Amino acid sequence: MHARAVARGLAGYFQRTGLTAWASAILPDHVHLVTGKPAMKVEQLVIQLKGDATRALEREGIHPLSSYKVDGDRLPKCWVRGQWKVFLDSQDVPRAIRYVEKNPLEEGKKKQQWSFVSAYQ
Asked: Could you tell me which of 25, 13, 4, 14 has the C-alpha nearest to residue 98?
């Protein structure tokens, strides 16, 4: 349920901005993405992606920290600060895609296919 909401938030971002995603794994405690080169710093991209995912969780009434909201205040953030990033040369992208696609399987989850992910060419 939460993963699908996060995916809808990410899908909206990728559709709105035109940035390409080649792989994504949305797990209970982290998200993996392989994307094209953004038009901004990666740190800013991650902030925007987290924001769209958070808004989707709120919109769907399943934000995991909604019980901590105080009237008039924002919800507490459900994401850690920062990100782990790797910059890839074109020859490394297929390996990174395979890693991301295998990640849910290694955690005992089903293979994931998200509407916002495009085939790498």
From this structure: 25
Question: For 25-75, what is each residue's pLDDT tens digit?
Answer: 999 989 999 999 999 999 999 999 999 999 999 999 888 888 887 777 778
CA distance 37 to 79: 23
pTM across the whole model: 0.90
Domain ranges of the chain: 2-106
List the Cα angle 28/55/25 in 5-degree steps.
30
CA-atom Rg of the chain in angstroms:
15
Given a contact cutoff of 8 angstroms between Cβ atoms, the answer to whether 57 and 78 are in contact is: yes
CATH fourth-level superfamily of 2-106: Transposase IS200-like (3.30.70.1290)
Q: What are phi and psi of 16, to 5 degrees?
A: -65, -35
pLDDT tens sequence across 81-106: 889 999 999 999 999 999 999 999 99
